[in-house]
# Entry
Amino acid sequence: MTAHACITVDLDTLQCYRDIHGLNHDMPGHEGDPTYRVGVERMLELFDEYDVEATLFVIGRDTNVPLHQRKLKEADDAGHELGNHTYSHHYDLADRSREEQQSEIARGEGAIASVCGRRPVGFRTPGYNVTPRLVQMCASRGYHYDSSIFPCPPYWVAKRAIMAWQKLRGRPSRSAITPPKNLLAPITAYHPERERIWREDPTSEMPLEIPMCLVPGVRIPVIGTSLHLFGEAGFDWILPALERTYDRILNLEFHALDFIDASDAPDGNQLAAVQPDLRVGWPKKRALYSHVLERLSDSYQFSTMRDAVGVV
Ligand SMILES: [Zn+2]
# Structure
């Protein structure tokens, strides 16, 4: 059986990070957001070098910016999959009304179809805050997979602490707390129960759930940002455990932000104060990602999530 490595990238613009950190912002103008203008450009070039067909989770509203739309078209032409990351990227989508949730999914879908002419078959909710109702909505719209579960207790605790701190400082985050039951979910791809999506039910008709990659046992995240904590040697050390655990689908999640550094954004230094991974320069990031992709290519086939779940 082929083991698939799905490189997935959430195309969150700097606007999303300003929302997390309670900073003010305007919508990007014609020059586009640095995550698209610089980040997506570098990402496409890197993936081309390593023959990676990736899955890009798109925020629908970005298709209204001509430069963003052009980059997405380029990505689609290069064989990457465009998945639905909702229309407006509301971190508290899970708490909003049924109508608003439906509309966020449907409008996100329409935006992607307007770029590539096909409806998406995969969904990722903003900020990992997924609920049974959101996945049920995707199921009834014919989605083949959801990739929103991040069953990582250390991340959950850190996020809660940071949000409480921001509230104390009078700069409340627009992020939201992930339902804690999701922390109980399996760490490898599974079919979830309809009402308790954190539990596996092999007979379920629900879309396949593909969680973010974690170091098994200790459940430390293996995502774009945490790769810097491991470094090249650390990644080599955990890789055998990843290969044993993720013998079907490994989901390595990046964000568009992982492909830029502070020098790429006009308010980069202000953002880097709260988003420290921006302080790592692009050449260093590129070297690390190249190493990771090279290692992964020894035992995995790079596939879009759509291909990995067997959708033709
Ligand atoms: Zn996002």
The chain has one domain: 4-308. The CA atoms of residues 47 and 310 lie 21 Å apart. The pocket of zinc ion is lined by residues 10, 12, 16, 85, 89, 126 (CB under 6 Å). Residues 4-308 form a domain with the TIM Barrel fold (CATH 3.20.20.370).
